[in-house]
Amino acid sequence: MRTVGIAELRPGDRLGKPVLGNNGIVMLEAGTVLTEQYISRLRALSVKYVTLSASPAYDALGDEIKNRASETAISWERPDIQAMKNDAKAREEAIKLVAEYADRSLMVEQIVLPFPEEGFRKRYRDILREIARQPALTEELGVMMLTDRILFEHALNVSLCASVLGTVRGFDQSKLYELTLGALFSDIGMTRLPVNLTKAKRELNESEMKILRQHTSEGYRVLKGMKEVPHLSAQCALLHHERYRGSGYPLGMKQEDIPEYARIVAISDVYNALGSPRHHRNAYGPAEAIEYLFASGNYDFESDLIKSFLNQIIIYPVSTNVRLSSGQLATVTETQGRPIQRPLVHVYREADGKIVEVPYPLELRTKANVVIMEKAGE
User: Fold this and answer.
1) In this structure, are 191 and 287 located in the same domain?
2) In a domain? residue 61
3) Which of 290, 310, 330 is the last residue in one of the domains?
4) Helices H / strands E in the chain, number of each
């Protein structure tokens, strides 16, 4: 049997356990074959999970993942994991940071929301609060924060980007919950690896990288053992390093064979990893991260997903001071409806250093020979 989220249900699935209402009354008996009407009714009643009888197709997928993951099974267990799970202070701080994130996130200033912002914030906030109400999940949040604050903050940023993409793709609240949960814990396997590798301030050699790549199968092991985590969410940990042409790991999956959630988390993970500092390198600039994603179309990621993602990204928000290829300094004044790297700017200093008393507009989308080079320091 397996526990799944409502968004995973398909007509023909068979219940392995009865579905109970809030009052304890059985709504659907074990053994019931689900129809579209039954599934719609469960959604209407805000049922989040059900237990299904295992199907042959599911068993085959589970066996493949289990067999492939065992090929690189980790031969150690971090001795301090349980102690970190039991750290009440860490759990409380993690819950506080997660609860505040949807409201304080500076990342929202760098994202174009093609839907009402307050509605999105509320849905996203509700998902994070639901996660923070579940003790097993908050234990893992505490472990992540104690292991590496950079990893913790990265996880929140990835969950936000994934949630935006899921909303753009029309996911309902149940699917958004599964996607956001999977994104938030996609790198949980990193907490089980040796700290001298995950926090190394140098490039890792090939044998060390082989160990580091095991965080996908180890993360899947951790999440799959938690009844609070739907199967599709757990898959995000295992498969978020798979790539469009099969060059990823651990299974070498290709194109549409990679589950949709994992594809969304993958691009969100890469974008945020490039734009954030790591123990062994500084952060890439926004333009560099964008160029990397453009170049990876139909190679690492499907082009349509990249376009959908980049349509929501603002790399130079309004009020940002920038240096132009012409040598001029300018302030970004408008981004809406413009190409990602060509906002409307107002020039306040000329290339020769002369201050412009009244900044004048420069429409970069019509100036093919002038581009933004970097953020200005003033």
Assistant:
1) yes
2) no
3) 310
4) 15, 9
Identify residue 48 by its one-letter amino acid code: K
- Using an 8 Å Cβ cutoff, are 178 and 322 in contact? no
Is 163:176 a contact under the CB 8 Å cutoff? yes
**How many C-beta neighbours within 10 Å does residue 319 have?**
9
The helix-helix angle for 117-132 and 88-104 (nearest 10°) equals 170
pLDDT in tens, 148-200: 999 999 999 999 999 999 998 999 888 999 999 999 999 999 999 888 777 77
Q: Domain limits at 325?
A: 321-375
Burial class from Cβ neighbours inside 10 Å (0-12, 13-18, 19+) for residue 271 reads buried
Whether 242 and 334 map to the same domain: the answer is no
**Where among 310, 333, 350 does a domain terminate?**
310
CA separation, residue 199 to residues 147, 150, 159, 191, 280 (Å): 9, 10, 22, 11, 8
Nearest by Cα to 131 from 90, 57, 181, 61? 181
**For the chain, which residues score pLDDT lower than 70?**
1, 22-23, 54-77, 105-115, 277-283, 285-286, 378
pTM for this entry: 0.74
Same domain, 329 and 363: yes
Separation CA 378–CA 369 (nearest Å)? 24
CA 369 to chain CA centroid, Å, is 35
Helix (H, G, I), strand (E, B) or coil at 82: helix
Using CA atoms, how far apart are residues 108 and 96, in angstroms rounded to an integer? 19
